[in-house]
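hey can u check if this looks right to u? its 109 residues, i copy pasted from the old doc so theres a chance i mangled smth
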Amino acid sequence: MGKLHFLYATLLVILIGIVIVPIASIQVNKYIYKNRVTTYLIEEKGYKKEDFESIEGKWGFKFPAYYAIVTFKNETNVEYIYFAHDNDVFKFNYKITDEGQNAGMKRKT
């Protein structure tokens, strides 16, 4: 009976590791990207923390897998998407929120 309990415990630890490690890795990388983009915007672009409505690290299935969405207090209807690669940070794209579209905002072409 002792070997069976050991086997179950081992399988449980392996199963937990298979589930928890990837989830933890995603959360850590989202945090890292958020901080890299925040640092870039403050130190390189001259923004202040007060300028941001929010900065959120994201993970997705598309390329890039990790990115950050930045919303500025003076443009709450626009979400800027930043991508950090190696030592560089890029403004990748932007999106007008549903609220902005409902208010008549349109994307520049």
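The chain has a mean pLDDT of 88.
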